[in-house]
């Protein structure tokens, strides 16, 4: 059995950084080290573990089968180390360390999102905190909260996963849009006539909300499926598809004439944003402080979020 030492943890962090950056050369800036040094560290780690972790060559950087398994184990180990440090902080009640936050894409233009205001409030308190923000799909966020890589995440989670605590945070307005090259962009149809035109069009749906999206648009199947809002916008702008977008996100293209919102009085929908964290884990001071600031900022918008202020 391999016995881990401090030097091994350092080498595993190097390995994790290389994989995250996509190769030795790309990791130089993140690790503040030259390529020769990084190569030596990886060779040392492979010797310690007794396996080949990656291949480098003309085809680029690629993990071996053993490398994939070791990388997954490394992320779990580093998350466990971070949790240990957080638990130690609980004992000394010190607001310091790393806070790992996850969020779905394309929320930056949402005026109802409390995350920007919460971040400003949290950082302004002078905590000795390093904030890591990960943008991913709902499934990725749930997985990372479950395995400890994220302290909490915010997004759409239509199906609740055992082991996670879900709390309602706020609502996001959605509309149905087509691009200026789509036949419906110049359509004069209204009401039921335009609903029929929409139902006969090619629809792009979010994979994680596909059934919901299709039901709202009155169609039985999607012609395209995506896992993020930006991909939806790309297909809508192409003129080949119709789809749902957050109204705040689509506003920039509506303003410059690239998109049109279809029958907004009949097809404006609300989609819930939830906050998720792992059940059965005592929140460290750093997480508790962020949740308290999140609750305070949300109440300013008329939202009662005390339900999650003291839960994990």
UniProtKB/TrEMBL annotation:
Residues covered by the HTH lysR-type domain: 7-64
Annotated keywords: DNA-binding, Transcription, Transcription regulation
Listed GO MF terms: DNA-binding transcription factor activity; transcription cis-regulatory region binding
Alphabetized InterPro entries for the sequence: LysR_HTH_N, LysR_subst-bd, WH-like_DNA-bd_sf, WH_DNA-bd_sf
Gene3D superfamilies in the cross-refs: 3.40.190.290, Winged helix-like DNA-binding domain superfamily/Winged helix DNA-binding domain
PROSITE patterns: HTH_LYSR
Protein name in UniProt: LysR family transcriptional regulator
